[in-house]
Amino acid sequence: MTNMLAIAIAQLNPIVGDVAGNAEKVVAAWETAADQGADIVLYSELVLSGYPPEDLVMKPAFMRHLRHAVDDICERTRSRKNGPALLLTTPWDIDGERFNAVLLIDQGKIETVRAKNDLPNYGVFDEKRVFSAGPMPDVVSFRGVKLGVPICEDVWTPKVVAHLKDRGAEIFLVPNGSPFEADKGDLRRNLISDRVREAGVPMIYCNEVGGQDELVFDGGSFGLNGDGSLAVALPGFAEEVVTSTWSRGENGSWRCDENAPKADYPSGLDAIYQTLVLGLRDYVNKNRFPGVVIGMSGGIDSALSAAIAVDALGADRVRLVMMPSPYTSQESLEDAEQCAGMLETGIESINIGPAMGAFEQMLAPAFEGREPDITEENIQARSRGIILMGLSNKFGHMVLTTGNKSEMSVGYATLYGDMCGGYSVLKDLYKTTVFALCHWRNAHHPEGALGPDGMVIPERIITKPPSAELRPDQKDEDSLPPYDVLDDILHQMIEGERSVSEIVESGHEEATVRRVWRLLDRAEYKRRQAPPGVKITPRAFGRDRRYPITNGFTNLVT
Q: Is 262 assigned a ligand-binding role in the annotation?
């Protein structure tokens, strides 16, 4: 029986489906941990497949590929005498059933397999669709120490941890795939504190890092001593392998060396901004785009999108295009050009006036006797969409759409126009948060950002009234309530699922609330066709909030 364990936390950024590449990351982290003197390496949830693998695990060929990769990892880790053991996480077949599993591999041999018991089936998670629930797990015996290895959701309720404590668990090592949500870092710490307090046993929480479609995993892995005090902490939003040393005291309890690193985790707007940067960077890089192309309007949404893109990818991979119409103000042209100068990207201009004239001429016979209306406004937006998609097709850059959650909620966007593109980095940000992030970015240079320091968004872009500029003197508030009012109503409807009467009781005018409810409901068909985007809130459109398009339950008071 050993009285000391050196435990490595491998906070890695896998790519879903890239089994060979993920295996290389696993082995590289194992080698780093070995150089640090680790006895065992803890990986995040399903590191070998990437998380979440979704329906990939339903392919027998994919499961075979995983098993071959495990065999290869066993062979490669067998070669280093006295190298650390691995708590390798992977989908795993057992007697014809698929499990979300962790394998204890020691000296190149699979010693123990444990499967996730509590499969989440809410929000972005649908593991019951593709995995079988494992039995209530037993402890894992490693060098005379009884380890509890619950997997992610297994620690969100007390039962699995309590069971493992009853089985004699001395230290909990927990693989996790926990995506970012605003203020979730505190929620995780409080949750793990609860489990530690209930069990009186130390717990190490290893979280994935990196972007996967709409989800961003923010890392921030950490460990707590049995008394709940912070033992070790890894940074957010970055890959890291950290080894901490744990010793058994005279009373039999384990405690971490006080000199273990304790990195700070960003909070508030800092964390949100870093999430947006990482989500966009990984979506572009993992899908092998050379860069992004953005339509610059001179407005706040495209300016913030451009700043995030430059911070994520570097100025040389961001192409900014101004597409003026007869309704574009000189102020907007100047603001877009100044923003591009601050971001050091340069900007080009492609006038859509000729396209507007051509469509007007083409459609004149069909529109005869009809007054101009929103149809002509949408043609402008769709002309811009054609230009951006043409540039994307010709040069390979992905079109980055610039709409925010406030607009997407109420349908204040043009399908096949400003909604077209491959990714929407502001998709889950309310307009009021967009304003706040612009102020924050002008005052801060985020960790790891590739863009310039100092102000990157002109102050006039932030302070001027938002406008789509699709008709003379147009302002967003001609069509929508003020954004502070709109966003509060939307937050109550979407995140809070509150009724019209409840929102009215909170202080809003009933007519306004009913109008927003109607707009939110009617725009569902647009949102179904919108590109993916970074999840920030607990109720992001797409994976989180799933409403029927054909829906008779609308605009009700109760």
A: no
Residue 402 annotated as binding?
yes
How many Å apart are CA 11 and CA 47, to the nearest integer?
10
Could you give the dihedral angle defined by the CA atoms of residues 475, 478, 482 and 488, in that order, rounded to the nearest 10 degrees?
-120
Count other C-beta atoms under 10 Å from residue 135's C-beta. 9
Contacts of 345 (CB under 8 A, 6+ apart): 306, 310, 315, 318, 319, 320
Q: Point out the residues that are catalytic.
A: 45, 116, 152
Where is 240: in which H helix or E strand?
A: strand 240-248
Q: What is the DSSP string of 95-107?
A: TTEEEEEEEEEET
Instruction: Output phi, psi for 129, to 5 deg.
Output: -70, -35
Structure-token match 């921030």, residue found: 220
Q: What is the pLDDT of residues 40-83, one digit of tens each?
A: 999 999 999 999 999 999 999 999 999 999 999 999 999 877 89
Residue at token pair 């797409």: 542
- Categorize the per-residue pLDDT at 543 as very low, low, confident or very high, splitting at 50, 70 and 90: confident
Q: Which residues contact 110 (CB under 8 A, 6 or more apart)?
A: 70, 74, 103, 104
Domain edges within the chain: 4-250, 270-555
Q: What is the pLDDT of residues 195-238, one digit of tens each?
A: 999 999 999 999 999 999 999 999 999 999 999 999 999 999 99
3-state secondary structure of 233: strand
CA dist., res. 273 & res. 462, Å (int): 17
Determine the residue type at 67.
R
- Contact at 8 Å (CB) between 65 and 22? no
* Contact of 171 with 201, CB cutoff 8 Å: yes
Superfamily name and number for 4-250: Carbon-nitrogen hydrolase (3.60.110.10)
Exposed / middle / buried, residue 64 (Cβ in 10 Å: 0-12, 13-18, 19+): exposed
Q: Both tokens of residue 56?
A: 């990939």
Q: Is 346 annotated as a binding residue?
A: no
> How far apart are the C-alpha atoms of 486 and 478, rounded to whole Å?
13
Collect all residues with Cβ–Cβ distance below 8 Å to 144 and sequence separation of at least 6. 1, 2
**CATH class of the domain comprising 270-555:** alpha beta
Residues making up the chain, counted from first to last: 558
Measured between alpha carbons, how far is residue 121 from residues 53, 111, 153 in Å? Answer: 14, 30, 10
Please name which of 42, 26, 38 lies closest in space to residue 77, comparing C-alpha atoms: 26
Residue 96, amino acid: G
**Is 404 a known ligand-binding residue?**
no
410-444: burial string, b at 16+ Cβ within 10 Å, e else: bbbbbbebbbbbbbbbbbbbbbbbbbbbbebbbee
Decide: 175 and 194 in contact? Cβ < 8 Å: no
